[in-house]
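Most newcomers find our protein records easier to grasp once they have seen one. A learned vocabulary of local backbone shapes supplies the integers on the structure line. Here is such a record, shown just as it appears in the course material:
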Amino acid sequence: MKRAVFAAVLLLSVLLSEAQESQTIYNFLRLPVSAHVAALGGDNTTLTEDDATLIFHNPALINNVTDRTVNLNMMTYMEGATTGSASFIRAAGERGTWGVTGQYMSYGTMKETTADGRQTGDFSAKDIAVGGSFAYALNERFTGGITAKFVASYIGQYNSIGAAVDLGLNYYHSESELSISAVARNLGGQLSAYEDDFERMPLDLQIGFTKRLLRSPLRLSASLVRLNDWEYGFGKHIVIGADLILSPQFYIAAGYNALRAAEMKINESDGASAHGAGLSIGGGLQLQRLKLQVAYAKYHVSTSSLLFNLAYNL
């Protein structure tokens, strides 16, 4: 296992040195699934909590999740689109944990027309992803994890299938409550494409840290995202967030995502405005067996989104 984690870190380094911009497919995989992550800016790979939704952001973090936890998630998106996901976590010995995941996004029904605008019918579009994850504690501070997933996309009578892996490595120092992670999400490619027009996966290389200020309820997080794509300046790759841990059972969180704010700016007569995109807020209630989390943010220029998580320990 140590050799596998070393190989994963080496692969991350190689990919970082070969940064490139490209058009990507299956971009629903970029959306946050964890409401806690969404509240902290939409990208975070360093939360070391009993939260099953973190499997979608860093597979190394599932070692902190209670055995036999089932999780259901839903997010409101642009009008006509619905998205949902689920996961199940199970312990594997004293140092391992495995999990399975599923994601679904429907874009609703749209009108099918000819080139001259004549309607010929209706069609639907949807994306699906299923995956399996495994995490292993290398020692008391380092944990490595991997997720393998298959992705399918359907637009009317056309479809595309892809395969990808997520690789994650987490360091956690319990005395100082410091967590550091490096993650490569969506490493892979299309197995079949729309009319043989192959596109790249939404690869995202991320590093980040989370640190609780000792003897205070405040916890800070910062991440660098899209390290394989330098279309934007350095500042646009920064995501920051803060938790206010009011009790072991309740938290509130807020964050800012600079890249999302830049991507959603709209030019108006009085200047460019992101209309609140990039800002996020949320909270969670974490009981012994039941966990509820919610977050508010903006992921599409037309509307704001609410993300809900429900987890239960069987």
Summary: The helical segments are 2-16, 35-39, 258-263. The domain at 2-313 is CATH 2.40.160.60 (Porin).
